């Protein structure tokens, strides 16, 4: 079928063709033709957010929890600039998004027209690719390529800026398959030499560690299964970055917990003492490596990554393999065959010695709820429902990563690379859209939750039963912790003054509000949250000055962890202060 | 006390073949600024009959590891077809074109013309009191010529930046 259609109509048809179910968006002048094309169209479900940042994060939550690309639709100017934080977030965490932005009509571009912003310019370095569409005849092919780019290779956000006149103008459209440009063909397989060498290195290692990341999740459930299979062949201990949690089951005997700045003692010590590090879909981020010249000094390193630019970016590796995690793991398993690795008894005994430090054991407190305990209870009471958990950013996020175990991929949604406060609530909303029958919980802090609090209204409107569990310590806890540890407790602007009454706020939005003030109410409060069929905010008042440990202070090596019970000096030299 | 540390740096010539689409130059130049890389020179022109493909020559300098990153980051851009690090590939020809305006009379004017001949710089505009010389060559040759003209009435210099190509019969 070939016919004349408007740009807006071609866009909608193209989205439907891509299998899009949800569009997270907010209307405005420069996207009115697209909103008109959406009107009454039952094939796409539009979720009206309350702020465009919420749209981008909701699309991220949808994408991360379903493995499908998230779609955002916002207007020109402020619509686009508000969405930028979420786009940058998706860029750093490799989340596939397609963002449609309206633009002022072609003839007005560059004239400082009403609600004009140089969206293509502004988004250039926080998108994987972007387009300014000048002719509706190009739209179908652009949308097709945008989805291909967003979802293949290293996933990421792709933005399509569409001037208003291009949305209205007509072009010939047909429902046949798109003739694709074929200019984006990322490498997915390792060479046979690479695979042979990797397997030899792994088979000869006496103290190997698997260091896994978000790439394993992005490569799909098959990568997770293959990771577990390869681990079973070798028996190597496994650690993961923040982004990779869930790829390896947290109750496995060889699971070390998360590594890095707030990682476990055993994970960081194993990285430090390993003779071989197999990095799978992680990128040696500064939160992971600590002081670079002291990072894993005695190990050989294999790095599997689909992005060539991630190889040797901060840490030089001995064997890079550019490819998709699932494909390369599959190749390695085939090459491994019936081989036997080295006897790891001695290595595992050393690892057990580090486990003995019980680095996640925290002091108890009779007066106040310890935040770690609150997370542990939240996990115990919800685990039978296999919940999807999102977080905001800060101490609560690290506690969630440490004390809420995950067993499968796509259950853990967090802003790792950009560290965006305000991510969790909209991400939970997006995840709930994609997983209508799941229990979806945003573990939040009292400061972060206020950054996109307006999205409470979105959940109400679409009857999404998301739960927000606030660890309320009346501080921007992580900022306060750094100020305590590195600025002699000068708490500059980190106190959460004038907090709203979260219970009343919940009720004002039509949510249920629950306050938990002491440990005796903790389980009942969590249970009431689970049992309520609609959205709930739990305002859980926790011990105010608890720090998040273990911690590798900035500029320190993996072996210099601060653990619970250590005395910490209140200052730091300038070199360390200058690090992120 | 903290001081900023500097690493040993290398100079590399890269050629980048790209789709000739709107914003591609901004994308590439912006990548350099966004990630803190250096551009010493950048030239660009389309190289196919249908104007669909452009070749960009970039001269950059930085620590070894950064040059490798620049290569990888450029390759990651969707409209980039190919990146060649000519310094890495081996022997290559690097040429630049310069226009050099020199004003003067008498002995200095004669001397300027004589030196221009030695450098094979051609006068492309002449008045009774000035020349514009056009010369092509390796950048250091142009540097030398410009330095000599300084005493002989140099008015202004325009340079294109480098275009470069690997030696031998193959495409790099």
Automatic annotation (TrEMBL), chain A:
The keyword Metal-binding applies. Pathway: Amino-acid biosynthesis; L-valine biosynthesis; L-valine from pyruvate: step 1/4; Amino-acid biosynthesis; L-isoleucine biosynthesis; L-isoleucine from 2-oxobutanoate: step 1/4. One of its GO terms (cellular component) is acetolactate synthase complex. Residues 393-540 form the Thiamine pyrophosphate enzyme TPP-binding domain. It comes from the Bacteria. The keyword Flavoprotein applies. Binds 1 thiamine pyrophosphate per subunit. GO terms for biological process: isoleucine biosynthetic process; L-valine biosynthetic process. PROSITE patterns: TPP_ENZYMES (PS00187). It catalyses: 2 pyruvate + H(+) = (2S)-2-acetolactate + CO2. GO terms for molecular function: acetolactate synthase activity; flavin adenine dinucleotide binding; magnesium ion binding; thiamine pyrophosphate binding. InterPro entries: Acetolactate_synth_lsu, AHAS_TPP, DHS-like_NAD/FAD-binding_dom, THDP-binding, Thiamin_PyroP_enz_cen_dom, Thiamin_PyroP_enz_TPP-bd_dom, TPP-bd_CS, TPP_enz. Its cofactor is thiamine diphosphate; Mg(2+). It is an enzyme of class 2 (transferase). It holds the Pfam family TPP_enzyme_M. Residues 6-120 form the Thiamine pyrophosphate enzyme N-terminal TPP-binding domain. Keywords: Amino-acid biosynthesis, Branched-chain amino acid biosynthesis, FAD, Flavoprotein, Magnesium, Metal-binding, Thiamine pyrophosphate, Transferase. Residues 195-331 form the Thiamine pyrophosphate enzyme central domain. Its EC number is 2.2.1.6. Belongs to the TPP enzyme family. This is Acetolactate synthase. The lineage of its organism: Bacteria, Pseudomonadati, Pseudomonadota, Alphaproteobacteria, Sphingomonadales.
Automatic annotation (TrEMBL), chain B:
Pfam families: ACT_AHAS_ss, ALS_ss_C. It is an enzyme of class 2 (transferase). Keywords: Amino-acid biosynthesis, Branched-chain amino acid biosynthesis, Transferase. Coiled coil: none annotated. GO terms for molecular function: acetolactate synthase activity; acetolactate synthase regulator activity. It catalyses: 2 pyruvate + H(+) = (2S)-2-acetolactate + CO2. Catalyzes the conversion of 2 pyruvate molecules into acetolactate in the first common step of the biosynthetic pathway of the branched-amino acids such as leucine, isoleucine, and valine. NCBIfam families: acolac_sm (TIGR00119), PRK11895.1 (NF008864). This is Acetolactate synthase small subunit. It comes from Novosphingobium guangzhouense.
